[in-house]
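Example (one chain per record):
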Amino acid sequence: MPRFYCPCPLSTGQLLDLPAGAARHVQVLRLQPGGVITLFNGEGGEYQATVTRMGRSDVQVQVDAHDPVEREATRAIHLLAGITANERMDWLVEKATELGVASITPITAERSVLKLKGERADKKRSHWQAVAIAAAEQCGRNRVPTIHEACSLSEWLKMPTVQGQRCVLSLADGTQPLAQATQGDGPLVVLSGPEGGLSPTEEAQALAAGFAPVTLGPRVLRAETAPLAVLAAIHCRV
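Predicted structure:
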């Protein structure tokens, strides 16, 4: 059954004009009155809905039964991801959403090829949030991870932050295996670098801020692969 993110109040029995994005997708699928879809608004569970009218540019549905099902991971993982080049960041956002990430903060690292600020940064953030929404629709999640504003590691460290364990993916000596360093079930913040990794200065900042250096093993993974390996390893474990 097609699933659509609908960021507005939903209630059983409601007649609703779908937001423009969802309406466009319904039209692309050429659904007709009587067709059944699934809606979710990120506030928990999902709703079955029936198409009641197909206009030229609008779609009306009747919201039917609510299903309180949740498919979220039992541990919230917040990813600080060094911004990667080209389409790799899109791929990272998409797959991290599928793997249950709670939020993503794009980090403008010293070695990031793509530098973002101003209007360009706002457009990229909106684009990445749309990628996360599409991935949530596809994979069955009823809550969409937040894509935060891009910032440097120094800027992030000055902000109110998520409480919980912190770890940084590192190739330096003295790292611990991921499984050993991330015991427990509380929130976890994972920092990973862009192509070329974090700079020595950035890694020193992270360690001073309480990030435990962790390793994923003897192989060097790509910047867009390493954080996904963390998500898979921890969520499959729980």
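Caption: The longest strand covers residues 46-54.
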